[in-house]
Amino acid sequence: MGFRLPRIVSAKQSLKRTPFSETTPVPKGHFAVYVGELDEKKRFVVPISFLKHSSFQNLLSQAEEEYGFNHPMGALTIPCCEEAFLDLIGSLQSS
After folding, report:
1. Which of 20, 66, 67, 81 is deepest in the core (most CB within 10 A)?
2. Can you tell which superkingdom this protein's organism belongs to (predicted)?
3. Which residues contact 55 (CB under 8 A, 6 or more apart)?
């Protein structure tokens, strides 16, 4: 677990995370996603550039399979745990 900590910390620092009930405007060039399982979802604001990465596209495919176009949070919801999402985002930022 300790060997992944720097990547998780850098991912957390560079992403904007807000509580899912907050309706903070999303800056230009970014989009909001909800990540987590069951009632433990957190809102992240990520750069649009992540959409071109195949690993992020795989997450979107999983979201489509799980929710179709009816996302429970009213916005894009990604069905994975927060730690896995942060690991993925960390790897996208370093590439």
Report:
1. 20
2. Eukaryota
3. 88, 91, 92
Residue whose structure tokens are 């957390």: 12
What phi and psi values does residue 88 have, to the nearest 5 degrees? -65, -50
Euclidean distance between CA atoms 73 and 33, whole angstroms: 9
Nearest to 37 by CA among 79, 69, 89: 79
Task: Say what the pTM is.
Answer: 0.70
Closest listed residue to residue 46, CA positions, set 12, 80, 7, 81: 12
DSSP string, the chain: -GGGHHHHHHHHHHSEEE-TT--PPPPTTEEEEEESSTT--EEEEEEGGGGGSHHHHHHHHHHHHHHTT--TTSS-EE-S-HHHHHHHHHHHHH-
Domain ranges of the chain: 50-94
